Amino acid sequence: MKRIPINTLAQHTNETLTIEGFVENIRNLQYVQFLILKDETGKVQITIEKNEENQELTSIVDNLSLESTIRVTGTVFENEKVKLNGREVVPERIVVTSFSEKELPLAIKDKENALRETRLDYRFLDLRREENYLFFKCQTLLEMALREYWIKEGYLEIHSPKISAKAAESGAEVFSLDYFGQKACLSQSPQFYKQMAMSSGFNRVFEIGPAFRAENSHTSYHATEINMADVEISWIQSEEDVMEEEENLLRYALTRLKDTYGEEIKEKFGVEISDVSNPFPRITFEQAKKILKEEFGYIGENKEDFERKEENLLCEYAKEKYHSDFLFVTAYPFSARPFYHMLDEKGLTKSYDLLFKGIEITTGSQRENRIDILEKQVKEKGIALEDLSFYLEFFRYGCPPHGGFAIGIARLMMQIFEMDNIREATFIYRGPTRLNP
After folding, report:
1. Strands 402-408 and 225-234
2. Do 74 and 184 share a structural domain?
3. Total structural domains in the chain?
4. Are residues 246 and 383 in the same domain?
5. Residue 328 domain-assigned?
6. Is the same domain home to 224 and 293?
7. Which of 204, 211, 229, 306 has the fewest CB atoms nearer than 10 Å to its CB?
8. 188 located within any domain
9. What is the chain's alpha carbon radius of gyration, rounded to the nearest angstrom?
10. Which CATH number belongs to the domain containing residue 412 in this structure?
C-alpha cells in the first residue's frame, strides 16, 4: 500500500491504509497499548487491545523503544474519546523498520532540558521537533517567494564560483586553500561576480548561495558558513533605487510567508509576522547617532559604525515612531565601507544598512562604476591596484550605473522568528569551534 501522510487521515475514515513514522510515545496499560506515531505532517494514536488475536502486535510494542521507526497497516476510526484529533488507527500489522537505542542523548520534546551544544551535537534528533520542521518549511517558502519576485521582475539567476583568488572585501578574514599549487580562498561573497554581470549587460541578477567568513566570532548572530541572497541591478539613479527594490522584495516575501504560515507560526512560536504594508523609514547615519544621543542618552564608542546596542535602540525608535520593524540607515562614512561604494558630494558613501528587529540584516549601496574614481578609492583603502587587476578590468570597457545588496538567510529567519541565536536558525551550524556534525 502507498504510504499516507498522517495529516490526511481525516480523508480516510474507515479505510485500511499504511502509515509510517517515528514512535513518539508508548503507553503500555493492563488491557490496551497506545502508541503516538509522528511523521513530518502530524501525529496519530495507534490503539492495540491486548487479546489473543493481537499477541504478535502487543509483543512488538513490548519490545519497542521511543524514536524507533515503524510501518503500520490498519484502519482509521473516528473516536471522540481520543484527545489527539479525535482519531485513531487500529492496526492489523506493525513492522519495525529501525530500532532506536532506549537511552536518548536528549529529550526531543523538551528543548529546554538539553544544553544548546548538546542539541547541536545531536542536531538530527533536535530537528525532529515539529516547530523545527515548520521553521524550515517557512525558510523553503521564503526562498521560493524571493525567487518568484525576481523572476517576475525579469532577473537572471547566476551561480558564482566559491573558490576565488582574491578576497571580495579588503581586510576581511578568508579561509585559505591550496589550488593546484596556487593560493586561493573560499569566497566571502559573490560581490565581484555580481558586478561583472552588470558589466556583461545582464542588468538584474540574483543568487542564493554559500559564503564563507573566517571570523573568529562567537556571537549569537555570526557563523563561518552562511547562505546569502544576493542582488545586483543596473541603470539605477542612486542608492534609493536599491533600497526601494529591497523593500519591495521583502514586502513580497514576508506577505507570502504570512499568508501561508502566519497562523501556524503564531501558534508554534508566538510570533506575528511583521507588518510590511507601510514604507520602511529611512534616516541618515548622522541622524541616527543624534537620535541615540538625544532620545536614549547613549553615545557609542564606534564613531564610524554602530554597536549592537545601538542597532537595538534604533529599532526601538523605529517601532515607536514609525510603527515599523525595519529601518534603513544611509550615508555611512567611507572609512566604514568597502572601496567599491560610490561617494556623494560630501564624501559619504551612497550606501545603507537595513536594520530589522534590532540587528543589521543587509548592507547595500550604489557601486562606483567609473574606473578612474574606482582606482582612486582602491588606493585610498591602501590596496595595490595589481591585487584587483581582474576586477578592475570589468570597468574599462563600459559599465552601467549599478548597485545591490545581500541578505543573510539565517539571520533574516532568526529575526522573523525572534530567535535568540543564529544556531537555532541554521540547518547545520558552522562556527569557530564547530566542525561537526
Report:
1. antiparallel
2. no
3. 2
4. yes
5. yes
6. yes
7. 204
8. yes
9. 27
10. 3.30.930.10
User: Does residue 170 register a pLDDT over 70?
Assistant: no
Whether a cis peptide bond, with omega within 30° of 0, leads into 437 is yes
C-alpha 179: how far from its chain's center?
A: 30
Distance between CA atoms of residues 41 and 5, nearest Å: 6
Q: Length of the chain in residues, anyone?
A: 437
Which residue from 46, 36, 154 is spatially nearest to 90, judged by alpha carbons?
46
pTM above 0.85, yes or no: yes
Residue 109 within a domain = no
How confident is the model over 178-205, as pLDDT tens digits?
Answer: 999 999 999 999 999 999 999 999 999 9
Count of alpha carbons within 13 angstroms of residue 213, beta-carbon side: 19
Write out the DSSP string of 256-306.
HHHHHHHHHHHHHH--PPPP-SSPPPEEEHHHHHHHHHHHH----S-SSS-
Q: Which of the four pLDDT bands, split at 50, 70 and 90, describes residue 1?
A: low
Number of DSSP helices (H) and strands (E) in the chain, helices first: 11, 16
- Tell me: do 76 and 147 sit in the same domain: no
At which residue does the C-alpha cell 563561518 appear? 224
Does 407 lie in the same domain as 356?
A: yes
Contact 4, 19 (CB under 8 A): yes
